[in-house]
Amino acid sequence: MTKITKLTDSFLKNIKCEDGKKFIKFADPSIKSLYIFVYPSGKKIFKIRQANDTYIKIGEYPLLSLAELRELALNAFKMKTKGQNIKNAKRQKFGEIYDEVLNLNIKNNFSKKTIQRGLNYKKSIFKCFENRNITEIKRSEIVEVLKLLEDKSATLEKAKVWINKVFEYALQLEIIEFNPVASIKNSIVFKKPKATIHQPTLLDEKEIKKYIHTLKNADIKESHKRLLMFNLLSAQRPGNVINATWDEFDLKNGLWIISAQKMKMRREHIIALNTQALKILKEQKKIKVNDYVFAGSSKKGHNSENITCNLNKRLGYKGIQTAHGFRAMFRSIANEQQKEHGISMDIAELCLAHEQKNAILKAYNRGDNIELKRKLMQWWGDYIERIAGKI
User: Fold this and answer.
1) What is the pLDDT of residues 90-147, one digit of tens each?
2) What are the tens digits of pLDDT across the range 148-190?
3) What is residue 360's DSSP assignment?
4) CB 39 within 8 A of CB 45
5) d(CA 81, CA 72)
6) For the chain, which domains are there?
């Protein structure tokens, strides 16, 4: 083993492995049990020697600076005195742990939208923490950052979910001793959120009829008209409609089956389609250009997420009717007309893929639920045709 009296950047840059040897190693004289292994390939790996004469890699020079590698080593020794796993010493930067959480979510098939949201938070609101040691980030600092989102309560909550994931992950790996996010009480440290702004929707029959007639006669693509009508008739989230692919549909049995990874609640969702919605799908099938039901202008893609907002704006309904508002329209009118259709509102919630809290309904078998959904959704399609004419 090579002995040195002082370890410097100059020495590390110039040291090479002797010919014929698998590696050479030498100890850092300033930190006990920290060794540098130099390989014929030119790699210079810093490792910590353990009591059983085995070594744990903590990093590579010059990918990490000499100062950073020494800091990692010192952190490892601190963790060792606390009985923690020193293998986690090299994973103490907030940004690196955040990346691990992102990759884990990708492997677990979280939606692209969810992953992109997490990535956006890392690059924006949490960028100030990126190169910080996660063990040194205080609860008060996290609160200060989240306060920047106080006026956007929904965004604040989603950002908090993501940073909580990062700290919880670090806690499970024993990189930190406690999760500072878990004890943040929104009602105490953040301003009370403003009243929820619901998605604009029409509820008066005459206004709904006027909207549909405006849509039918609009100077827009027929496929765009069908997209909005299908959204209204199915009462599903616009994102699911825009991203719908042909393999999700069982046209013979009138079913639309959305996989768990595409759903907000991460559960498979089965929609019973009314005859009016099926008619639209059959028309779309005639102009199929790719795997997407409502294909975009490119040969492989679908329409943008903003397409429904832009279409309603062109129809003159900006701030009056949204595609997401069709869901509120369906729910409100189904509730008002319950005596007419005779279906429990619990079934309406299932049609909307809302979490089901009714224990009895949860016990229903899948077939019973589908048939009840089918009856309610057919009533909805017939109701729309009754007030607005043939679809």
Assistant:
1) 567 899 899 989 998 888 888 888 899 999 999 999 999 998 989 899 999 999 999 9
2) 998 887 789 999 999 999 999 988 877 888 999 999 998 899 8
3) H
4) yes
5) 15
6) 9-83 (3.30.160.390), 94-189 (1.10.150.130), 205-388 (1.10.443.10)
Q: What are phi and psi of 138, to 5 degrees?
A: -95, 155
Backbone angles phi, psi at 386, to 5 degrees: -65, -40
Q: Could you tell me where the DSSP H helices lie in the chain?
A: 9-14, 66-81, 94-107, 112-123, 139-146, 153-172, 186-189, 205-216, 222-234, 238-242, 275-285, 307-314, 325-336, 338-341, 345-351, 359-363, 366-388
Instruction: Give the gyration radius of the chain's Cα atoms.
Output: 29
| Average predicted confidence (pLDDT) for the chain | 88
- The burial of 272, by beta-carbon neighbours within 10 Å (0-12 exposed, 13-18 middle, 19 or more buried), is given as buried
Cβ contact 135:99 at 8 Å: no
What angle do the packed helices 94-107 and 112-123 form, to 10 degrees?
A: 170
Per the document, the length of the chain is 391
User: Does residue 112 sit in helix, strand or coil?
Assistant: helix
